[in-house]
Amino acid sequence: MITPQHFTSLESALCFLFGKGTKAERADRISGGDINEAYGLTLTGGKCIFMKTNVKENASFFTAEAAGLAAMARTKAIGTPEILGTGTDEGRTGYSFLLLEFISGEKRRADYWETLGRQLAAMHRAPTDDLIPNGKFGFACDNYIGTRRQKNTGHENWISFFRECRLEPQFRDASRYFDRADLKRTVRLLDHLDDILVEPEHPSLLHGDLWSGNVITGNDGSAWLIDPAVYVGHAEADLAMTELFGGFSPAFYDAYKEAASLQPGYGCRRDIYNLYHMLNHLNMFGRAYLSGVKRMIGHFG
Ligand code: ADP
Hints:
Elements: E1 6-7, H1 10-18, E2 24-30, E3 37-43, E4 48-55, H2 59-74, E5 83-89, E6 95-101, H3 112-125, E7 143-145, E8 148-150, H4 158-174, H5 180-191, H6 193-196, E9 204-206, E10 215-217, E11 223-225, E12 231-233, H7 235-244, H8 250-259, H9 266-285, H10 290-300
Parallel strand pairs: 1-5
Antiparallel strand pairs: 2-3, 3-4, 4-6, 5-6, 7-8, 9-12, 10-11
The structure holds adenosine-5'-diphosphate.
């Protein structure tokens, strides 16, 4: 795993990265994130960088995010912001931070979606051998999906990884919302997962939280990926998530499918992958997601 430099203050990070005396002359708040505070920092000399902050107890959000960005960058398949560093500032209030290259593009290129489809397929094809210490599926460290810890323990088998590291922990936490019939359905679903899912032809590095809010436009007009929850899994799980909240153009899907042939039956498996994200939303945000979750469980269980 590639670990970026971890600094003990923002001041020391900026001096180390950009030269002695460099300060954040301005911090402009950026909206759009769900979890952290985000800023565009204008540094002495005029350069702009991106910073996310959270309380210091959540420093692991950023070390995990940086490890994910580094894994995606290593594939050289798709644009991701350069990682400048992570840190924990122990000052009076204390906070943790992640510093990244600032990405800002005004205008999308004409083939924006088509290129993203091809690039995602290329990332899904990239070798994954040394991303997990043991097993074929998982990741070198646990990370976060939203604010919730995402287990990435290595497994040899995709379906058991998805059962044990994805559905089971979410079902356990969501059980307080379920009645007896729902609980029976969840047990049945987990027992029959081998009949519903398939093993992939090869393991793929996944972004892991691929909704349209995590795709931004770079200076080159192409799509860049931010805010991942990476792991090595079945590529279908990434594709499924793009369909959960919408926002990806048909050109993206056409290009992806041309570059990476889908195993038959993807359409029947998609909702199982998305059930994980719906359960995660239920556990993070509460009952508004319950009817959607019940519908999905009812369909499979
Ligand atoms: P959160 O972790 O809170 O969900 P995000 O990673 O989604 O935060 O970032 C919040 C917002 O900041 C995004 O919606 C995006 O517009 C912007 N953003 C994220 N990364 C960068 C970057 N490297 N450069 C410029 N803007 C960024």
